[in-house]
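Run log, item B.
One chain of 763 residues. Sequence copied directly from the ordering sheet:
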Amino acid sequence: MKRTIPFLMGATSLFGLATAAHGQATLEEVIVTAQKRAESLQDVPIAITAFGQQDLRNLSVANLQDLTESVSAVELFDERGSGQPTWVIRGVGLADFNANNTPTAAIYYDEFYLSSNVMGGLGLYDLDRVEVLKGPQGGLYGRNTSGGAVRVLSIRPDLEQELNGFIQGSYGRWDRSVVEGAVGGKISDTAAFRLAGMTDQNGGWQDTLATPGDDEYGDRDFNSGRAQLLLQPTDTLELLFKVDAGYDQSQTTLAYSRALFDPNTGDYCASALAGTLNQQDCVTLSNLTSDFVLTPGDPGPLASSQQRDGTLVMGNPINKLDNSWTGANFQLNWDLEFAMLTSISGYLEYDNKQKYDYDASPLALFEEDGRADLTVWSQEFRLISQTDGPWSWLAGATYGEDEDKEHRFGNTLDNVLVFASLTERGFTQQNDYWSVYGQLAYELTSALTARGSLRYSDENKEYKDGYTRDLVDDFFYYEDVNKSYELQENWSGDAGLDWAVTDAAMVYGRITRGFKTGGFPGGFAFSSEELNSYDEEIVWSYELGFKSTWLDNSLKLNGAAYYYDYQDVQGYTQRVSPVSGTVVNALGNLGDAEHIGAELDFEWLPVAIEGLSLQGSVAYLSAEYKSDDFALDPADVAVDLDGLTRPYAPEWSAYLQARYEWQLSSSLGAGTQVSYSWRDDIYGEDNVAITPLSYAAYGINDYGIINARAWIAPVDGNWELALIGKNLGDAGYWSSATGDDLGSFASTPSTPLSYAIEASYRW
């Protein structure tokens, strides 16, 4: 059997130590498949952060969104508290929670594109690696990669190994328990299997003033399983079948309510208008409304009684998921000697159900109970050259369809000051997409390589049978709405030069054009005109970077600087609703923006301290609107967008990690790892907020998170015992801040200090 097939599909990304012949520790080579072929990370002209099996274990992450802490210039928008996580890379991102809209950082799960952000909450278990590709990836990956791409790759069955596997479990604060395991091995010389699964339970850490007693709210209830069968009927043919399924019935984070109103006048309080969040003297819309729907003179729980870290809030404990999914994936690799033919077929049914309390109060000012049934399938073919010589090439084609059927109930019956109603709404969105693409590289000299890629894409979306109905007064705001959208900007790709300065250093320059398709607003609307499609956004990226190793391969230093010409930015525009009389958000195009940034990351094994490894990264970003459009603050004050910093684009972000491993005896070893992740203001007073009131309503200041893990294990590595600590500084920070368009404002708190003990056994 030629080595090409298993090497291509099972390339392993490894971080850690390798001992050279003279005894000095050196960095191991990291193999990635970011360009659809197995290559050393140091040879790929893309800014990539890769996490191998050991990295994921040492970081103690249970889901994909946790990884954002470990990557500079990457943020997580998760308004609903782990319900619909969306990656924002280098400030490029659509902060939208609706299931019918796609993120700008595409997630690929075993080469299969996940078409909605609601699918991004998948569990991390039995993985070979995760690759985070920064910058537009419009050539090889196509649509919806204007920010980047995230590749999640499972451990595959192995034809060379007998029966093997592992089981790992942890138990920690708030009775949270996580168990994962896998078993696999060869069935015969031509067949192998692998079974893997994960369960994540309990962990409720919140209490609410809306109910008596201790709620212990926020329990996880996540279960997922995966089965794979690898067949190798001939020396040149390999077939991989995968099925997976799971459900997530977790309680999601209860929001922290922000008080912005004067209790005497009902207008915005003086503190909020001055840009200060004053929880002592100001009140929430719930407090103003309680006098009309509850006991007169009783404002209900006050915002000042909450705990800023989210352990005590005042919202109704209804936030909950009821997601389930089943999927199948079939991959074929056929070695044709001159090229490798790969076929990837994927199918996924994903049922997303979620209840959420937008107003974060004991009243029903805006609560939603919604369902989105998503069906996705796709087929991709690609041919990758394998011949020697100055030329290398790749050609491919892909076709996909997805459908989203949505039905949602909205409860605003207690919102008597603004909009008291009970509504239902729904629609069906269908999408079909196809593309052809190619990549070509030519070695101009032994040190200089020119490369480029080009993709033509075609996409059509249909919005069908849209309606919104008032159930109290029994009338339709609109019904039988049908609209269509067609992609107008069909071309994407990149061109660049790579210069191998030495055997250990490369400089690259790259110009890339990426896009994210347009679509339809998926939120609440009062009229059919509000459902008009928005256009695709385009990012032209100009990037100059380097990759290098130093000090006898004990230091890796990579960096990049970039400029983005960001056109037709997708985001939320503001308008005053004639029905509610409040400022509401509508999805559309905001004009242009300009992103300028630089990043530096390193990994170092200090020679003077055996067993010590350091790694980290720092990123700078200036992301500003260059637009003649305007935005409204909650008080209907209009501000020109031009020159304003974009949200979820902190000026500075950094990550630092130190790991130290040592021998306790001839047969026993130990290790410890400490990491610190820091983010500048995500929505701050100096660099984002359009008015002081906007800062009081949406401000998210800088924060830092300290995580740690300590372990003991035998030299043969068949078992391990570890202690885990998360957010050890107990930083009370918010991951998002939003308004419900009806007068309530809330922040999503992140989990406070937690700890766990973990044990694993491998055979």
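Observations after the first pass:
- Residues 285-293 form the longest helix (9 residues).
- The longest strand covers residues 448-470.
Flagged for discussion on Thursday.
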